[in-house]
Specification:
Helix content is 30%, strand content 19%. The protein has 202 residues and is of the alpha+beta class. The chain has one domain: Glutaredoxin, CATH 3.40.30. The two termini are 35 Å apart.
């Protein structure tokens, strides 16, 4: 019994020293990925040689919140891609669970909305699990540093999930503008609101 208590204590101390993480947090360095785009080509963050960072958004075809943000996501890319912060969209949902999130449906969705940025399919969901988005849409602003791509902001695009014209806080705009100005991001994390992510075996 005594030995068992010692083992439990050691295990708990190990957890305290190395806490289990549920996805990237602000300040973490992101591992690059290679995912299939809706045009059939493989895309990685390393392909964007001139990028200063990225606006990585986990989004989908069908969520009402995602649909409400479509035009705002397009506007983000139009505003910031030329300044070095392009939008990269990733569908986090498993098509086995939600058939309307299949690769073919993604292609149709991207075409219908005129996406001029990557909309990536993560069939294995390996990248999804590393980021661990909870909702669609869920945004990660990444900043290119000497140490690699670091997470600078995680959360919602703005503070009105249904109507962008009524938003009073534009979190992603503010974060990217601060980074472009060489400043620290003031608001680094907010709550993403939207449909839950559909993971395999979960």
């Amino acid at each position: 019994m005594k030995n068992l208590m010692v083992l439990v204590t050691v295990a708990l101390m190990g957890l305290a020293a190395n806490p289990i993480k549920n996805g990237y947090e602000v300040g973490d360095v992101v591992t690059d990925f290679k995912l299939k785009n809706v045009d059939g080509k493989t895309v990685s963050l390393g392909d964007f040689k001139e990028a200063k960072g990225f606006i990585v958004i986990f989004d989908c075809n069908t969520c009402p919140m995602s649909r409400a943000y479509n035009s705002r996501i397009i506007a983000l890319n139009k505003m910031y891609a030329t300044q070095g912060f392009p939008v990269v969209l990733i569908n986090p949902n498993a098509a086995e669970i939600a058939a309307e999130e299949s690769f073919d449906e993604m292609k149709a969705h991207a075409k219908a909305h005129g996406y001029d940025f990557p909309y990536l399919y993560d069939e294995s969901q390996e990248t999804v699990r590393k980021f661990n988005p909870t909702n669609t849409p869920h945004t990660f602003v990444l900043n290119k540093t000497a140490d690699g791509l670091k997470v600078a902001y995680i959360g919602a695009i703005d503070n009105n999930s249904r109507n962008g014209s009524k938003a009073t806080k534009h979190f992603v705009d503010e974060a990217v503008n601060e980074l472009l100005a060489g400043k620290q991001v003031t608001v680094t994390k907010t709550r993403a609101i939207g449909c839950s992510v559909k993971l395999k075996n979960s």
